[in-house]
Amino acid sequence: MQLCVLILSLTSTLTELSGCFKKTTTEPHLVETVPEPTTKELVLVAIANAIPFIGFGFLDNFIMIVAGDQIETILNKKFPISTMAAAALGNTISDIIGIGSVHYVERFAQSVGFKAPKLTPIQLNLHRTKAAANMGRVIGVTIGCIIGMTPIPIFSYFHNGG
């Protein structure tokens, strides 16, 4: 009997508590409407985010390839090392240098003179704006990585007796 009373008491308490959480009042005068960024503004957001990532992608690949090649050349004289191990060590060096170069890459990107559009914090937080920013970063780092592969044909030329 006491167990039934306890269960009923708990059930009514939980019902009351859940009612507190279900009650929501919307106050229309407090809701702010923000204009969606235009397509031009979204493209400018993507470009503004792409510029520094071109630098990051370039430095990352360029340093990894140069460092990996040197590690493989130097270490193979003392003991055998695989190309993948040399690339991994080159990537580690590239990442370390990348951390130190963040400030300089961002400063260079700002010196290019390209300015992102003036958007409100709410507009910057919209899904479309975040997607445009991320797309710009992806495109930027891809372009940078491709440009950063320039040591490959140069090394091939010199390693094969040019």
Automatic annotation (TrEMBL):
Tagged with keyword DNA damage: no
Name of this protein: Transmembrane protein 65
Q: Which InterPro entries match?
A: TMEM65
List localization entries: Membrane
Q: Where would you find the membrane-spanning parts of this chain?
A: 43-68, 138-158
* Topology of this chain in the membrane: Multi-pass membrane protein
Q: State the GO CC annotations.
A: membrane; mitochondrion
The protein's UniProt keywords, in alphabetical order, are: Membrane, Signal, Transmembrane, Transmembrane helix
Name the Pfam families on file: TMEM65
